[in-house]
């Protein structure tokens, strides 16, 4: 359950990054409030996971999920470049996440 909560918290990190961008420097009320809400959920999930998983592993996986998701969202929604180097680097982050999970055990 801790891994599932951690992954969901990482996905909420992607959401708050999206809302941070669309808030246009906190000048748009809706996205600004959505940013605060999704950031709160993301941090709460990370915090809960830290009670059940090693701190370094949980934090690295949380940021990795957020980094991969945010990079892919940028490519998909904002037309950011999808170069081979960029996609390969995203793949390496995914490998790192998988390696950390394997090293910590599946439980």
UniProtKB/TrEMBL annotation:
<feature type="transmembrane region" description="Helical">
    <location>
        <begin position="33"/>
        <end position="50"/>
    </location>
</feature>
<protein>
    <recommendedName>
        <fullName>Guanidinium exporter</fullName>
    </recommendedName>
</protein>
<dbReference type="InterPro" id="IPR045324">
    <property type="entry name" value="Small_multidrug_res"/>
</dbReference>
<dbReference type="InterPro" id="IPR000390">
    <property type="entry name" value="Small_drug/metabolite_transptr"/>
</dbReference>
<feature type="transmembrane region" description="Helical">
    <location>
        <begin position="84"/>
        <end position="104"/>
    </location>
</feature>
<dbReference type="InterPro" id="IPR037185">
    <property type="entry name" value="EmrE-like"/>
</dbReference>
<keyword id="KW-1003">Cell membrane</keyword>
<keyword id="KW-0812">Transmembrane</keyword>
<keyword id="KW-1133">Transmembrane helix</keyword>
<comment type="similarity">
    <text>Belongs to the drug/metabolite transporter (DMT) superfamily. Small multidrug resistance (SMR) (TC 2.A.7.1) family. Gdx/SugE subfamily.</text>
</comment>
<keyword id="KW-0813">Transport</keyword>
<dbReference type="Pfam" id="PF00893">
    <property type="entry name" value="Multi_Drug_Res"/>
</dbReference>
<keyword id="KW-0472">Membrane</keyword>
<feature type="transmembrane region" description="Helical">
    <location>
        <begin position="57"/>
        <end position="78"/>
    </location>
</feature>
């Amino acid at each position: 359950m801790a891994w599932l909560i951690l992954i969901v918290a990482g996905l909420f990190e992607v959401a708050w990054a999206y809302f941070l961008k669309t808030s246009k420097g906190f000048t748009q009320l809706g996205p600004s409030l959505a940013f605060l809400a999704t950031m709160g959920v993301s941090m709460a999930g990370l915090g809960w996971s830290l009670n059940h998983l090693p701190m370094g592993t949980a934090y690295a996986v949380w940021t990795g999920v957020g980094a991969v998701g945010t990079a892919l969202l940028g490519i998909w929604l904002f037309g950011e470049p999808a170069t081979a180097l960029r996609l390969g680097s995203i793949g390496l982050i995914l490998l790192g996440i998988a390696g950390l999970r394997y090293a910590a055990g599946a439980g």
